[in-house]
Amino acid sequence: MECLLGLACKDFAIVAADQTNAHSIIVMNNEENKLFKISNHMAMGITGESGDTTQFAEFIAKNIQLYKMRHGYELSPTAAANFTRKTLAQHLRSSTPYMVNMLLGGYDTNSEESSLYFIDYLGSFQKVPFATHGYGGFFCMGIMDRFHRDDLTVEEAYDVLRKCVTEIHKRLIVNLPNFKVQVIDKNGIRDLEPLTAKKLQTS
């Protein structure tokens, strides 16, 4: 029932995640952070079992920081995504699998390109121009396919996500009122204004 949305354009990647933390039929809160900073130019949106998501995201982030301390430079988004996929696949074959789905967005300062990676709990891995996770994504792939371009500005990409979240609020039976949005570019990671049901109703 959780939802992740992501777009990769020429100069930046943008990811959004719902902020609903639910257990069974009970909503615990609507301010859960599902976007994790992996490095200065990489962010991960992650959903799944609540314990697994935090533990796995922190495990990946700390290992990438350790790599930087040992070698003096950061992993590229491609290398970090491959490491994440390998770690997930190794645990899948052990007695302690992580039940998590991810979108990894990053900006490579060497090649000056942004990228977005789709990774699921089975270790599937693909570089994509746009992607979703969760039931909400069923309503968004058509919108992203229609409006995505490599030369989108941050404002235009944010507007595409706004269209997606509006459609989720309109069509999905589950209530996902708040979406946190982050953009990753050459200047690092920064938060954009959250997409909330209250805000979208008044706009």
From TrEMBL:
<dbReference type="InterPro" id="IPR029055">
    <property type="entry name" value="Ntn_hydrolases_N"/>
</dbReference>
<dbReference type="InterPro" id="IPR016050">
    <property type="entry name" value="Proteasome_bsu_CS"/>
</dbReference>
<comment type="similarity">
    <text>Belongs to the peptidase T1B family.</text>
</comment>
<keyword id="KW-0647">Proteasome</keyword>
<dbReference type="GO" id="GO:0010498">
    <property type="term" value="P:proteasomal protein catabolic process"/>
</dbReference>
<dbReference type="GO" id="GO:0005737">
    <property type="term" value="C:cytoplasm"/>
</dbReference>
<dbReference type="GO" id="GO:0005634">
    <property type="term" value="C:nucleus"/>
</dbReference>
<keyword id="KW-0963">Cytoplasm</keyword>
<comment type="function">
    <text>Non-catalytic component of the proteasome, a multicatalytic proteinase complex which is characterized by its ability to cleave peptides with Arg, Phe, Tyr, Leu, and Glu adjacent to the leaving group at neutral or slightly basic pH. The proteasome has an ATP-dependent proteolytic activity.</text>
</comment>
<comment type="subunit">
    <text>The 26S proteasome consists of a 20S proteasome core and two 19S regulatory subunits. The 20S proteasome core is composed of 28 subunits that are arranged in four stacked rings, resulting in a barrel-shaped structure. The two end rings are each formed by seven alpha subunits, and the two central rings are each formed by seven beta subunits. The catalytic chamber with the active sites is on the inside of the barrel.</text>
</comment>
<dbReference type="GO" id="GO:0005839">
    <property type="term" value="C:proteasome core complex"/>
</dbReference>
<comment type="function">
    <text>Non-catalytic component of the 20S core proteasome complex involved in the proteolytic degradation of most intracellular proteins. This complex plays numerous essential roles within the cell by associating with different regulatory particles. Associated with two 19S regulatory particles, forms the 26S proteasome and thus participates in the ATP-dependent degradation of ubiquitinated proteins.</text>
</comment>
<dbReference type="Pfam" id="PF00227">
    <property type="entry name" value="Proteasome"/>
</dbReference>
<dbReference type="InterPro" id="IPR023333">
    <property type="entry name" value="Proteasome_suB-type"/>
</dbReference>
<comment type="subunit">
    <text>Component of the proteasome complex.</text>
</comment>
<keyword id="KW-0539">Nucleus</keyword>
<protein>
    <recommendedName>
        <fullName>Proteasome subunit beta</fullName>
    </recommendedName>
</protein>
<dbReference type="InterPro" id="IPR001353">
    <property type="entry name" value="Proteasome_sua/b"/>
</dbReference>
<dbReference type="InterPro" id="IPR035206">
    <property type="entry name" value="Proteasome_beta2"/>
</dbReference>
